[in-house]
Structure formats: C-alpha cells, structure tokens
Specification:
The chain contains 17 helices and five strands. It is of the alpha/beta class. A five-stranded parallel sheet has the order 2-3-4-1-5, with helices on both faces. The longest helix has 23 residues.
Length: 335
C-alpha cells in the first residue's frame, strides 16, 4: 500500500525502523539533505544483510547501469536472508527506465532497495510505481516548532537543558539548514559547561551567523531608514568575509523579492501562493510580506534599478564596489 502522505512519512520511516517491519522500497528525496542523510544511514543499518560484503551494493550517479541493478536484484543473496541495494542521485526518477520501472513493480522478496535522490518528477512512471510498491518520502525542512523540539532534544542528549526560546534564537541566528544546526549544536555542547543550560547568549556568542539572515537584517534596517542598524549588519557581513560585490548582488535579489511580494500581495494573492510564485521558503514569507509595507512599488523599482546600475558601473570599472555600496546605504538610511 502506498504511504507518502505529507507530514507523517518521517514518523512512518522511524516506526518501520523501530518495529523492524520494513518496506522493500524506500525513495528519499527533497531539499533537506540532513534528513535524507540520517534516514539513508538508519535504513542502511537496519537493512544491512548478514553477509554485507556479498549482499550489499551501492551505486551513485546518472551513469548507473539499469541492467546491472536488475540483474543484481534477481540474484539470490549469498548465505543471507536478503540483499540491500543503495542507489544515490541516479536520476531514474527524472527519466524513467523501462527495466527499472518493472523491477520496482515486482521487487523480489529477498531484495530491499533504498533510493536517495535530490529531486524526483512526481509525474514519472518510476515515482508512480513507487506509490504502490513502497514508500516515497519527501524530506523538507521542518517548521520552527519541530526544529525547536529537535534542538532541545539534541541539547539534552549532549547533557544540557535548553529552553525553546534559546532554540528559536539559534534558528534565527544560524538559519534552518539542519546540517548547519547540527554542527552548531555540537559547538555549543562543547562550549557550555557540563549540565549547564544552553542560553540565547551562548548561541549569539559562538554561533555562525547565517548570511541570509544578516542580509535581511540589512534590508530591513534600510526599510526603516535606520543607519546604525544597517551599518551594524554591514560590518557583520564584512566580518563574515562577504565581499562588497556579493553584498550588492544579495541586496538586489532581496529588493527584487520584496518588490515581487508587494505586487502579488496587491493582486490579492495569499501568503502561501506568494511563497510558491516567488519561490520563497515558507519560513521566510512573513519577513518579505512585512518588509514590503515600508515601500511603494515605485520605490522598490527605483532601488532595484539603482542597484543594477551600481553593479554595471563596478563591472565596467567606473566605480569601486565598497565605496559604491556604502554611498548607496548612506543615501537610503539618512546616515
């Protein structure tokens, strides 16, 4: 029976592993690399055959030979109950192969297959076959509430209590990438004295500030014409070794997104639809909706065009990047 309902699939994989009642096919895909990596590892460990050297095979890349996979799947395991085939980034779910589709429809009972893919085409025959043969699991970044619980639990496993408010500060300071958050939590566990709580102050003391959050802090400060806050964010970006040219590029992109958000909002689009059309992560949509209220569409058009002109002058040697950026910031914050 197909099991791919959004919001529950991760819990279902965890339950499969805990109970030992495992599907013969798992397809892990989506934007959240940390979750894919964790479940790939856990499924591999849970399904590892008794004689792994003979019965565990791993393949990677778009050059994987479908014929070899199908032949392997039809070969009885050697001195073991089953064999495991791990396939990564094969692109079979973007351009379906007839033999692979047929294999998925009728996987031998002695074979388990785990796919880990960056993306899949949900219209493909491979994906549709998966829905009846196993479990397709889209790994997306959890919402803030789920991330807070995960961080609090991670801190607890490391021997430290952590309040949800401190976990939220960590998300806002370091971003929502789970690989980065995991790394930052390891730093905090080593930094804080044993059994002492991890606080928001600890996060700000040693946490790696996310570039996206800092550039948005700069954009937001410019929206309210706060020179001190804008230049504080600018100095933080320089401390993070962000080049002035890169800051200009990111500023232009942010203002274009704010402009698009305002246009969509005035057309009556919902927050969800704005995020989909503008390709803004759901966790960040609210920021853009709030920022657009400080500008008219004409102001956003002028700022975006001004940034494009600055970039053109820098590229042709008519302006120096740092000087041009600082003049732009001064003019738009009243400093």
């Amino acid at each position: 029976m197909a099991r791919n309902e959004a919001g529950s699939v991760i819990n279902r994989i965890s339950e499969d592993i805990r109970s030992g009642k495992l599907e013969h096919l798992y397809v892990l895909f989506g934007e959240e690399a940390y979750l894919k990596d964790q479940f790939k590892r856990q499924l591999t460990e849970a399904l590892m055959p008794e004689n792994p050297s003979m019965n565990f095979s791993a393949f990677s890349g778009k050059g994987v030979d479908p014929g070899e996979i199908c032949s392997l799947a039809q070969t009885l395991p050697f001195l073991a109950d089953h064999r495991l085939i791990l396939l990564e980034d094969t692109q079979f779910f973007k351009k379906a192969n007839d033999a692979m589709v047929e294999l998925i429809k009728a996987i031998p009972k002695e074979v388990y297959i785990v796919f880990s893919e960056d993306a899949v085409d949900k219209r493909s025959r491979m994906y549709k076959a998966t829905l009846t043969a196993g479990l397709a699991a889209e790994m997306t970044t959890p919402d803030d509430g789920t991330l807070r619980k995960w961080l609090v639990q991670s801190a607890k496993r490391g021997g430290h209590p952590m309040e949800p408010a401190a976990a939220q500060t960590m998300i806002e300071w370091c971003g929502r990438d789970m690989f980065l958050l995991h790394h930052e939590m390891e730093k905090l566990i080593s930094y804080v004295e044993p059994e002492q709580p991890i606080t928001a102050e600890d996060v700000r003391a040693i946490g790696t500030r996310q570039l996206k959050d800092t550039i948005f802090q700069l954009t937001s400060a410019m929206a309210v014409r706060s020179g001190p806050d804008a230049f504080a964010a600018y100095r933080e970006l320089l401390r993070l070794e962000t080049k002035p040219g890169q800051i200009l590029y990111m500023l232009r992109r942010e203002f274009k997104l704010i402009w698009l958000t305002k246009a969509l909002r005035e057309q009556g689009e919902s927050d969800r639809e704005i995020g989909r059309i503008a390709k803004i992560h759901p966790a960040f949509v609210g920021r853009y909706i709030k920022a657009q209220t400080a500008f008219t569409e004409e102001q956003l058009r002028q700022i975006t065009e001004e940034l494009a002109d600055i970039q053109a002058r820098i590229h042709t040697g008519r302006a120096k990047d740092r000087e041009a950026l600082e003049i732009f910031m001064t003019e738009h914050t009243g400093e």
